[in-house]
Design brief:
Number of helices: 4
CATH topology: Trna Endonuclease, Chain: A, domain 1
Distance between the termini: 27 Å
Largest sheet: 6 strands, mixed
Order of helices and strands: HEEEEEHEHHEE
CATH architecture: 3-Layer(aba) Sandwich
Shape: globular
């Protein structure tokens, strides 16, 4: 499976924020398919060594159609979420997008509703500044 254009950048940005990438990709097997979520990472917190575990699906939004990019991003998230919850229930799924693409989700009320109903979590990144700008 081909990596998104900004896959390596997002991985680097996560590592810069103290995350340890544990899988690239994270593979989850279901009855009918093998799902590949772009990254899995962990971060130790505090003296107790409690950790946060995340899975990240990276989207670049550089295709010919932003609408198709939107469909692809939403479709993958909606498919991956229940598979991840079964395999690794303590891992939180994020959709990583360039900042400009996040605004596109809310230009259409239907996609905004899908985001809210599915509790989609985002990591927003800036490709020019090469930094994570927000966790939503």
């Amino acid at each position: 499976m081909a990596k998104d254009k900004y896959h390596d950048l997002v991985r680097e940005l996560l590592e810069d924020e103290g995350w340890t990438v544990t899988d690239d990709p994270l593979i989850i097997k279901t009855e009918l398919a093998k799902i590949q979520i772009d990254l899995a990472a962990e971060k130790l917190i505090g003296a107790e060594k409690d950790g946060q575990r995340i899975a990240v699906e990276i989207k670049s939004f550089i295709g010919h159609s932003k609408l198709n990019d939107l469909y692809s991003a939403l479709g993958k998230f909606i498919l991956y979420f229940p598979a991840l919850k079964r395999a690794e229930p303590d891992r939180v799924l994020y959709l990583a997008l360039p900042e400009h693409a996040y605004d596109y989700f809310y230009q259409d009320s239907i996609s905004g509703e899908i985001v809210e109903r599915n509790d989609i979590k985002f990591i927003l990144y800036d490709t020019d500044l090469k930094k994570i700008t927000a966790w939503k």
